[in-house]
Amino acid sequence: MSKVFSSMLKTTALYSPSTGKWTAGPTLAAPLIGHAAVLLKSGKVLILGGFSLDATSTPVTSRACLLFDPKTNSLGAAPSLPYPSALHSAVPLPDGTILVAGAGPSA
Hints:
Helix content is about 5%, strand content about 35%. It has one helix at about 5; strands at about 15, 20-25, 35-40, 45-50, 50-55, 60, 65-70, 75-80, 90, 100. A four-stranded antiparallel beta sheet has the order 3-4-7-8, with no helix packed on it. The chain has a two-stranded antiparallel ribbon with strand order 1-2. A two-stranded antiparallel sheet has the order 5-6. The chain is globular and about 40 Å long. The protein starts with a helix and ends in a 6-residue tail after the last strand.
C-alpha cells in the first residue's frame, strides 16, 4: 500500500476565522482522501467520493457522499454518486445543483 493511503485519517477539523483557532470536528466512519467538498445554500457541506479503505485496508474509489451539518457538528449519509469518483472537482451552480467533473482513476 502506498504511503499516502497508509497515512489516511478519519479526523475532521473546524477553523474559526473569528478566533483564529482550530477545533476537532466529527469523526469520519472511514479514512478519506482525494474527495471534494461543497458548501450548500442550506449552510451544510456535501462531501463527495474520494479514496477510502475497504475491510482489508485496500484503497478503493468511493461513490459515497456525506453531509456535514455545522449546526449539530455531525455527519450523515447523503445520496451516493452515480459512479466512483476521486480527485474530482465539485461546484455549486446558481440553482443549487452540484456539478461534479474530472473523476479520477480507481485506486
